[in-house]
Design goal:
single chain, 368 residues, little secondary structure, four-stranded antiparallel beta sheet, DNA-binding
Length: 368
DNA sequence: CTCGGAAATG
DNA sequence: CATTTCCGAG
């Protein structure tokens, strides 16, 4: 019976409409195709979710390059994950095993040298437009399939609220539920209308510049990836040419933010015009047995002065990309070039959001 | 700590 | 199929 698993995760915040940028992933990301309303959350989804909330900054946070994140409190993360999956005996060891499985799937990478540091392979991840902001409704495009439906709301064991999922990957149903088939069967070619953008980056250190997210000031945590102008060419060939999911060539993501409204291709007319107020972010964690991370007064990591994104991405980002990676499991890919060496921002160690005073980190043996 | 093989599970 | 669990090796 019951596992009293309180899903303390997302439902903590009301999840206003204004969430973080809409991150979306390719089909393979959430492969619910087979399971209609019950798609268990995947670990990496969960991680992303955590990363998205400041509440968990003490537990996990973006650090380093684009998709790099550090698990500050493996225990807590494991616990949360356990809660989400109703696995009381979960611990970092197990969780990490699952994470390791991602290596082969190429969803994650391990940043060697750094304890608990992994990196998302966004090379495969597709950034989609973000959830329309009702406040401005500036996004003409965007949409996403609307899988929600009716189908089965009960995702996890815990009484998850729709808003929870809605926060991230689920699907911004703002498109409209017109003719939703019982089982959203994704039309092969129809490709819904989701404008996806393939982020070919991944070169990571290559550019070696910028890194800190701070995308949404007021919001706090955004993934450190999309802060660049759309310098990527028209979608990189071989970016995600998996034999299974074929993405339309029209991948471009209008990732404009009010703050970054200075993007080159600014389609949104009233983009900056509408910037909803920041969420209060006060009440969180309703039923957490182990409230570990004090919300903290909010050192204000996010809103920071911004990394002055004046610097455009490396022009020559050679993402040559693996022209083809059919079924080879070879890990060629561009892997983190920097990673190999240590992915260190040598030379650009700006203001790393690495809160030193972490607190309770018993494990901090003399790191050097 | 990190890496994976292997068996088991829903 | 995606973990979960267990575990030996490095």
């Amino acid at each position: 019976m019951d596992c009293n698993c309180v899903s303390d995760l997302l439902l903590t915040s009301p999840v206003p409409a204004l969430w973080t940028p809409g991150f979306a992933f390719p089909d393979w990301a959430y492969k619910p195709e087979s399971s209609p309303g019950s798609r268990q959350i995947q670990l990496w989804h969960f991680i992303l979710e955590l990363l998205q909330k400041e509440e968990y900054q003490n537990v996990i946070a973006w650090q380093g390059d684009y998709g790099e994140f550090v698990i500050k409190d493996p225990d807590e993360v494991a616990r949360l994950w356990g809660i989400r999956k109703c696995k009381p005996h979960m611990n970092y060891d197990k969780l990490s095993r699952a994470l390791r499985y991602y290596y082969n799937k190429r969803i994650l990478h391990k940043t060697k040298g750094k304890r608990f540091t992994y990196k998302f392979n966004f090379s495969k991840v597709v950034l989609v437009n973000y959830p329309l902001l009702e406040v401005g409704g500036s996004s003409p495009f965007l949409l996403a399939q609307g899988p929600f439906g009716g189908g089965g709301p009960g995702p996890d064991c815990a009484p998850l609220t729709p808003e929870t999922l809605q926060s991230l990957f689920s699907s911004p149903r703002l498109a409209e539920p017109p003719s939703r088939s019982p089982l959203y069967e994704r039309q092969p070619e129809a490709e819904k209308l989701r404008l996806d953008a393939a982020l070919p980056f991944l070169g990571s250190g290559v550019s070696g510049y910028s890194k800190a997210p701070a995308l949404l000031g007021p919001y706090g945590r955004a993934a450190p990836f999309p802060e660049y102008p759309w310098g990527w060419g028209p979608y990189v060939p071989g970016a995600l040419p998996l034999g299974g999911s074929k993405l339309p060539a029209a991948l471009y993501s209008p990732h404009f933010y009010p703050g970054l409204a200075q993007l080159p291709p600014p389609p949104p007319p009233a983009a900056a015009a509408a910037l909803p107020p920041p969420p209060p972010a006060g009440p969180e964690r309703a039923a957490a047995p182990r409230p570990a991370p004090p919300p903290g007064p909010g050192p204000g990591p996010g809103p920071g002065p911004g990394p002055g994104q004046g610097a455009p991405p490396e022009p020559g980002m050679a993402l040559g990309g693996p022209p083809a990676e059919p079924a080879s499991d070879s890990e060629l890919e561009i892997t983190d070039v920097s990673g190999s060496s240590s992915e260190n921002e040598a030379g650009s160690p700006p203001p790393p959001p690495v809160p030193p005073a972490a607190r309770g980190r018993p494990k901090g043996p003399a790191r050097s």
